[in-house]
Amino acid sequence: MLQLYFSPLACSLSSRIALMEAGLEARYHLVHLRTKKVAEDERDFRGISPKGAVPVLVLENGERLSESAAVLQYIADLKPERGLAPRPGDVDRYRLQEWLSFIGAEIHKAFLFPTFWYQDDASLAKPRARIAQTLSVPSAHLATREFLVGECFTVADAHLAWALLLLRPAGVDVAQWPPLAAYLERMQARPAVRDAIATEMALRKAMAA
Fold this sequence. Notes:
With 209 residues, this protein is α+β, with helices and mostly antiparallel strands. The chain contains seven helices and five strands, in the order βαββββαααααα. Strands 3-2-1-4-5 form a five-stranded mixed β-sheet, covered by helices on one side. Strand 4 (56-58) and strand 5 form a beta hairpin. Helix 1 runs antiparallel to helix 5 (155-167) and helix 3 (91-117) packs antiparallel against helix 4 (121-142). The longest helix is centred in the middle third of the chain and has 27 residues, at 91-117. 36% of the residues are buried.
C-alpha cells in the first residue's frame, strides 16, 4: 500500500486530494513539521526524508518520492484512466508541469511559506508586494476556463486549490480575483476535495486543542 507522510493543511494536502480523486488507498502518517517528528511513534522525520518537508510518498516497493510536483504526477500516472494528468508526450503534460512549477515556486515558496514560517513584517514585505501580480496570472487564465489544463480536473487543480485555500489565513482575500474565487468554490464542491480538506481541518483542530 502507498504511504503518505503529511502535515495537516500543508502542501501535502494536494497529494491527499490526488489520492482520493484517483480512488487509491494509502496509509497516512502525520508529521509535526516544526519538531520534525512522526506523530505515531516520535520518529525523526528526517530519517524518512533528509529534506524534512512533506509530502513524502512511499511507493509499493519501498522507494520514496518527495516534492509535490513529482508526487502528484506519480499518483496521476497510477490511474491514467482518471485523467488526473495528460499522458506523457502530450503537450498538455508540459502545461501541467508548468502550472505545478508556478504554484510551487510563485505561490507556495514565494508567499505561503514565508507567511506561515516567519510571520514578521520585514520578511513578508516583498512577498506581500508580489502576491497580487502573481495571482493575476491564474486569475486571467481561469476567467474563461473551468480547469487549469485541458477540459477536466488534474493534479494541477489539486495543487492550486490547496494554495488558494491557504490564502485567507495568510491574510489575502481571494475574492479580489473573482475567477479564482469561483474556481475555488468549484473545486471545493468536488467530493474528494471537500472530504480531503475536512479531514485535515479536523486533524489541525485536534492538534491545536
